[in-house]
Design brief:
The protein is built from 6 helices and no strands. With 150 residues, the chain is an all-alpha fold. The chain has one domain. Helix 3 runs antiparallel to helix 4, helix 4 packs parallel to helix 6 and helix 5 packs antiparallel against helix 6. The protein is elongated.
């Protein structure tokens, strides 16, 4: 009985190590969309309250990964929405913003179909946030110019 418990515990530890490695690699791929000075901060400062952007990106990645691994589409999409809300602020093309998801296929080959579906959802979510940003910019410009676009 005790041998079985040790075996189960060893398997759980291995799963945790693999999960952490996948999260780390996904994070490294994701932050490439940010400017170099921000990448340096994202890599350097790991304290949750000193680096809220990193914290939010990691929370999103954890939700995305756990959702994929556990077959929970809702969890995966909530994590994805959090990530895309932060990435959409950057001035990057959709293919750059979503490239980290394509790289997940290499890390999780058994989840390739799920990752492809998530990729399509990511595009929709990313574009929704970009449209919202554009709308806010137009409203701001209109308010600054007395209701006229110049």
């Amino acid at each position: 009985m005790e041998g079985n418990l040790r075996k189960i515990q060893a398997e759980k530890e291995k799963e945790g190590t693999v999960r952490r490695e996948i999260l780390h690699r996904c994070f490294e791929n994701l932050i490439k969309v940010f400017p170099p000075e921000r990448i340096a901060l994202l890599e350097k400062e790991t304290e949750r309250f000193l680096n809220p952007l990193r914290s939010q990106l990691m929370d999103g990645l954890e939700g995305l990964l756990d959702g994929l691994l556990n077959g929970d589409r809702g969890l995966a999409e909530r994590g994805l929405a959090l990530i895309m809300s932060l990435v959409a602020i950057e001035d990057v093309r959709p293919k750059e913003a979503l490239s980290f998801i394509l790289k997940m296929r290499q890390m999780l080959p058994t989840k390739e179909r799920d990752i492809e579906e998530i990729l399509l959802s990511a595009f929709d979510i990313y574009m929704m946030f970009r449209e919202k940003i554009y709308e806010l910019r137009v409203k701001e410009r209109l308010s600054l110019n007395g209701g006229r676009i110049r």
